[in-house]
Amino acid sequence: MSFQSLGLSQPLLKAISKKGYNEPSPIQAKAIPPILEGQDVLASAQTGTGKTAGFTLPMLHLLSQKETLRKRPVRALILTPTRELAAQVFENVKEYSQFLDLRSAVIFGGVNQNPQVKQLQRGVDILVATPGRLLDLENQGFLNLSKIDFFVLDEADRMLDMGFLRDIQKIMRLLPGRRQNLMFSATFSKDIKKLAQGILERPIQVEATPENTTVEAISQKVYRVAKNKKTGLIIKLISEGNWQQVLVFTRTKHGANRLTKKMVSSGISAAPIHGNKSQGARTKALSGFKDGSIKVLVATDIAARGLDIPLLPHVINFELPNISEDYVHRIGRTGRAGADGQAISLVSADETSYLKGIEKLIGERIEVEIVEGFEPDLNASTEPIKQGQNRGGRNRSGGRGRNQRSSGGNKSASKNKSRNSRNRSSRRSNN
User: Fold this and answer.
1) pLDDT tens digits for 219-240?
2) Which residues contact 193 (CB under 8 A, 6 or more apart)?
3) Domain 4-207 listed as CATH 3.40.50.300
């Protein structure tokens, strides 16, 4: 199958060819035809399989067939959970629409709103946005969503995980009743299907890969190690392996900052990226990582869905996520577009249950290795440490940690309450 056989217009085919793409990925081949037919679509595919082009290309095709209005009201809205993802989707929209008479813009928090307002006032056909800034500008009267023809909810499962349900519901009330709706997600959880019922109308459901599977091109390995030896081991692996581009995940912002400092003091160029960093600092860190001036990017899960680094060779879980699904999204940053990638996890005794949950989720055992001099502590407790806390229970980051949740387990009311509290804080820092 080719992109041309899908019925896309010549300007889009020209843009696709310029990017070097020859044939559509499975999710693109399944999602593009029903979208072109005007149907609502609920699509699921693992990270790194081309979901963005799956909704961007047919949407641009349909928009280009419509009459261009003089004032150019926003006709397509793409909603994303994080600033980084919004910026990445916007770049894709610009690349694919470069030979079309369509204007696009991106808005998100953490930066001065004035340039964004000016761009909206000049007229925008396609708007990529995070929920908080979108609602803020609409409340100020700078944005009108009454002419929307296409509504796209990207990374819908991450939206729910970050507590954006109420914001989504507010935004839905601002949209016209007649529109085409597209929901793209890495999973088809019960919560996602429930959300889809309130947004999509008789949707076509497409799925390119089994839920929560990992890309075959990714080589996965676990290093069993004592908790206090993790920093030394990760520095050894990066230095002796002469790895030039490594994305490292920690559970907390404090942990990301601390690990970055220790890497820099060991002669490894590194930078942290998380919600407490200003948008300028986050943009600078990501830019340095992409151009090679920074070897290691130390991130919290805010970056798990929002980063698109071509041919990223290494992802390291300095700490395993306590929610198994997040492991899939983390390591999905490598092995993209068919390229090989390596995902390494440093696992201490207190993360044993997390590892078991991950292996159960992905349906495979991960290869285990022990490095001499960095052996695991056989006397350490396997009881998980609550996120953001030490053994004494004090929250090192100064706030409530993410609530513990076993993979596949039922959520209790108390956990939901804790999670809602965390989500409100997350929205303020990431939006």
Assistant:
1) 899 999 999 999 999 999 999 9
2) 42
3) yes
